[in-house]
Design goal:
By secondary structure, this protein is mostly helical. It contains 20 helices and no strands. It folds into 2 domains: 271 residues, no CATH class; 196 residues, no CATH class.
Length: 503
Amino acid sequence: MNLYRTAAVVTVFSTVEHCLGFLYRIILSRVLGPEGLGIYQIALTVFAVFLTACSSGLPITLSRVISKHRAKGNRRGEQAATGAAVCITLLVSVPLTVLLFALRTPFTKVFSDPRCADLFYIVLFGLSFTSVYAILRGSFWGNKRFFAYSFIELVEEIIMIAVGVLLLVVFQTGVPDVNRAAVAVLVSYLCSFTIALIYFFVRGGKLRSPRGEFLPLLRSSLPVTAMRTASSLMSSFISVLFPMRLMAAGYSSSRALAEYGVVYGMVMPVLMIPSSLIGSIALVLVPELSECFYKRETEKLSALVGKALNATLLIAGMLVPFFIVCGEDVGVLLYGSAESGEMIAKSALILLPMSITMISTSILNSMNCERQTLLFFLAGSACMLACVWFLPAYLGSGALLVGMAADYVVTATCSLVLLWKKTGRLRSGKYALKLFAALAPAVLAGTVLRRLLMRVLSFFPALVLSVLTVAALEVLLLTLFRLFDFVGFFKKFLPKRRKKSPA
């Protein structure tokens, strides 16, 4: 299967997974409400810190190490590296789980609301299981088993949604709704671990002695783990700090939690829509980039980086007009919240630096630049913290969105500069300028048309017509500016006709 078809398969799975997760988020917002959603989000955010510390840097490092061994034909090295990764994550996750349960009473004080602690300890049972599952995914990734990687992720999402809907909607019990939602997360962790483990051994996977691979893998994964753990810590810290700063600005505790729930539970899932497509690009390209990097194929490496950046800009750029024009209506349609819709529309441009940060960080990590990406993350986080501390009194919940924008702009800029140094050139500057020139008319025309339609039609028909008009304008403008060949793109996935042999 060629690169395009592989990316297409991964994208389909990832898109379905994110669409289902998005629909489930809508159900949660309706059942739990903004305050309950805020509690749910805070608990999972704190849990993510420990999950990240146990395993986050290992999967991408393991995939890169496996790619390195594959380039040398060293099968034993691949198996030893996988065994080392499993040992590392168990040595961290098991003692950490025991310690957190032993210190439950003092640790509960970390949360501003004791209900968050109940949710946290429910999902904590799955810490070791989902950490090992992350390692197995890393081995699938390094061996280019993208179907298994994507399929099991999709199954995990389906199980969480199915169990969540059963517990929250079908079976009514005396257990709080937020606790039942946490049980659904735990069940999905256990199931995905079981499926991945069975598949790993059925497909001939082995775990050899980690001797010779343990310390090199640990050293290589530490910068990525540190960066992602710091990111999770930052999210957890923000989940505590942001409501506190809102309360200092005059908000009640309940309203502060609700504002946090709106941003992270409603706005961010919409803004993260491009992540499914960008994640698919990164998933397919990272093993290729690692092999090119270790084989010193500079020209091919530069071309792949350029294609990845252009594709990322295109994906994010195509969504920006939709969010600017129809963001307010999307918030009302999905969540029944005009406030979330207004935030979506105003923060649409965050998609560009956010998407560049996602893809460039993955690319740089595949090129052994984990330490630099950690420094870039810290610089962006400093900007985020400054905004969250100083701006709530002036912008309210908008301070969090401004902080995110500052974070992503700083990180994306630093990452692009380093990529330019590593590859010798970046081929995306001209493409980005043409993309902005092409999409600006779509935003302007779509905004004017939406206002007219909202005056003469009811809400839903006006929204549908606005979306279709913006889509048609984008296709036309992207084609005129020669930024994307829609016909050629779809032809890549059609089976080629066999030439008839002469009689």
